[in-house]
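My main concern about presentation is that the manuscript never shows what a single data entry looks like. The format is easy to grasp once an entry is in front of the reader. For illustration, here is how one protein appears when written out as sequence plus structure tokens:
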Amino acid sequence: MLVGQALLDKARSLSDRPEDQIARACGYVGPSGRLLKKSFYRALVEAKGYVLPAVSSTGGHGTKGRQAEFRTRVHGNGNLLIGNAYTRRMGLEPGQEFKIELHKETGSIWLSPLDAAAD
């Protein structure tokens, strides 16, 4: 990730491009490929000479940033996405199969692993 004058020079040279492209070209991309916009903008501000307060481990706002909250919503196409953070936390692997049980009385959906040997 570029910082200081190198960041300002690179950003200036790409000023005709969209912000996302500039941030990527300056190296503000996380390990998952997600654009690190907040870090990019913070680095730009600091490169301009402004002193910003240190970022606390809770993001400075009493939150822990982008953490698994165990919340989701039904998408417009009707899909309900669980997400990688949850499947990884449960130790689930690609290709695993599950039985879906609906419990309308409680509003619950249960996923029960299918035994691979039962096929």
Notes: The chain has a mean pLDDT of 82. The longest strand covers residues 98-103. Helices lie at 4-13, 19-25, 37-47, 84-89.
